[in-house]
Write a structure and sequence with these properties.
Arc Repressor Mutant, subunit A; three-stranded antiparallel β-sheet; 6 helices; elongated
């Protein structure tokens, strides 16, 4: 395989390559979403939408999963509600709280994003092979498991599985 100029293979270069690839793929996904009419979505908005694909969540559970303040999460959700990506609903069993759910526009954006991720992965599998993509995936997941829940520096985010069993959603 031909390496792009400036990409080396030495100690510490895996992390740099992962960082660069993540940014390049993120930029490609953002371009695709903008072209599909979702030009008001920020990369951080996509993370919120992704957390809601399994179903509605209370704000406190969403805060826990995102690892950011309740104020920041609430502000982002309000912006997404105003842009019709999310909606607030009554909690099915607890009248004291409300839940956040995907609206139709949010679901459509998630589907568009997922299809583009699948297209990128498909192209990569054709380029380097299934085994290489599977190994790279397993390595990145292992890196996330190793590093993802460490104490973040200077108020940074904790990254955890989107299907984290310790942060439950809404039971109804």
């Amino acid at each position: 395989m031909t390496r792009p100029r400036g990409v080396h293979r030495g100690v510490g270069d895996f992390a740099l390559a992962a960082l660069i690839v993540g940014r390049v793929i993120g930029d490609e996904l953002e371009r695709h979403l903008h072209a599909a009419g979702y030009d008001d979505l920020r990369p951080s908005d996509r993370v919120i939408l992704q957390h809601l694909t399994e179903g509605p969540l209370t704000l406190s559970v969403l805060v826990s999963r995102l690892g950011i303040s309740q104020q920041a999460t609430g502000k982002a959700c309000t912006r997404l509600i105003e842009r019709q990506y999310l909606r607030r609903e009554e909690h099915p069993t607890d009248g004291r709280c409300r839940i956040i759910a995907l609206a139709a526009r949010g679901r459509a954006a998630v589907v568009t994003d997922a299809r583009q991720r699948e297209a990128i992965e498909h192209a990569l599998r054709l380029h380097v092979g299934d085994a290489e993509v599977d190994t790279a995936h397993d390595t990145l997941v292992a890196a996330l498991a190793l590093l993802g829940n460490q104490t973040p520096p200077r108020g940074g985010r904790r990254y955890q599985s989107l299907a984290d069993p310790t942060a439950t959603g809404v039971k109804g």
